[in-house]
Write a structure and sequence with these properties.
mainly beta, 59% strand, single chain, 7-stranded mixed sheet, 0% helix, globular
Length: 116
């Protein structure tokens, strides 16, 4: 089985920064996409950023220029560097891993709270 463990959430003031990390373990091969999603209270889960195994990135318009997704090549892990945080970035952030065959896995979620 595949397990994803997130870390790095917390409380930060407007304009601050946080770095989220996701580490994957288990029977992992043929990675397609690594990503981050978020879900704010009362809203649907939305894409934040994705990184393909080929190195292509995709960002939600609301985070472009502020967030950066990257991979830790020493292990199966990826990060989300979040700068210039805004109160509207407050949400539970989930990491996501997609393998070939449309197999998708989710982390347990980590809370990010941005105070105004």
């Amino acid at each position: 089985q595949v397990q994803l463990v997130e870390s790095g959430g917390g409380l930060v003031q407007t304009g601050g920064s946080l770095r989220l990390s996701c580490a994957a373990s288990g029977s992992i091969f043929s990675i397609v996409v690594m990503g981050w999603y978020r879900q704010a209270p009362g809203k649907q889960r939305e894409l934040v950023a994705t990184l393909t195994i080929g190195g292509w990135t995709n960002y939600a318009d609301s985070v472009k220029g502020r967030f950066t997704i990257s991979r830790d090549n020493a292990k199966i892990a990826w990060n989300l560097q979040m700068n210039s945080l805004k109160p509207e970035d407050t949400a539970v952030y989930y990491c996501n891993l997609e393998l070939t065959g449309a197999r998708t896995y989710w982390g347990q979620g980590t809370q990010v709270t941005v105070s105004s």
